[in-house]
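dumping this here before i forget
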Amino acid sequence: MFLNRTPLHSCDFPWNSRFINKSVFVLIVSISFLMITLFQDETYAATEPISKESMNEKAESSEDQGFSIMQQQLRDYKEKLRESERALEEFQQYHGVISLESQINFLLQQRNGLDNSLKEAANKIKGFQEKLAWVQSRISEVPQVVPLSKTSHEQGVIGGAKNQLLGLQLREQQLLTKYTEESPHVEAVREEMDVISTFIKNQEAKEAESVSTGKNPLYAKMEMELFETQADLISAEAQRAVIRKQIAEVDKELERLRSLRPGEDELRRQVKADEANYLNYLTKVGTTPPQDYRVQVGDELDIKFFFNPELNESIPVRPDGRIALQLVGEISVVGHTVEEIREILIKNYSGQLKNPEIAVLLRTSHVLAGSSSGTQGSTMNSNVGVSNGN
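structure:
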């Protein structure tokens, strides 16, 4: 009976499809339960309280990062200030300017003095012209020739002229040590020498022509007066020409300096703006020196001379509290403000310079900047300029 049983096919088993659907359902439910369990574990781990030490570490890390950012920003502001200061310094060096307004004021004073000198020269010329006209009118009324018995002073007149010629020759040699051949001063002296030489030749020629008569001493005296007045007039005119040339040079320099004002003003405005940005931000991360800040060892000073730029220098304060300067030697500066140092330098240089106009700049100073913990400090350099007020 069993040997003749026919094999069963899936279609012949009535519960086959139901069994498969039930297995799939059980599998899906098992996977879902597993995923819910894992999600609950992760949620529990995420909501677990953070330790105090971990919170402190994160806070300190955030504070350090913020402080580093502020320090970098401060360095950026400082570098921008240095760039604008360098631009202003290069502008001044290129155009030969130390203090534009001071130089303009100095030239205006010089111009005023030259105007007064020009007026004096013009008055002298007018006086010599009037004197020359008077001598010429008087000499025409005096006889030139008189009998020989009245010519005893003629040799004395010629000798005096020769002595004066010798003096002018010596003066010419002295002038040539300072001026060129084309200088108005040298030319004026040579014109005087030509006039005297011509006078001497004429006198000697007249003396040789006649033995019965001679030049009237009064006429010779008037003639010498005429010559001296002409020489004075030539000298005054030459002086006026020199003064006019100096005035033209001063006016040209004034025009040049005035044309530099817009460019320098723009550069100074940039420096002032960058300095304000730097100092304002510096108050957020540290302390900037006050106006009455007293110089310390290690600070760096810029010493600038308006009319003697060859003496300019940047110099650090030595450990002994002194700085060494040209012409005046060592000066003690520690404990003084920059304005006090400026007054000290002006007093010391007054015996060496005709116009000791000096500016003292506090290039770098030691100030305390806040640290990340708020309890430690670091030394920073701060650019704080202090001028002489011009």
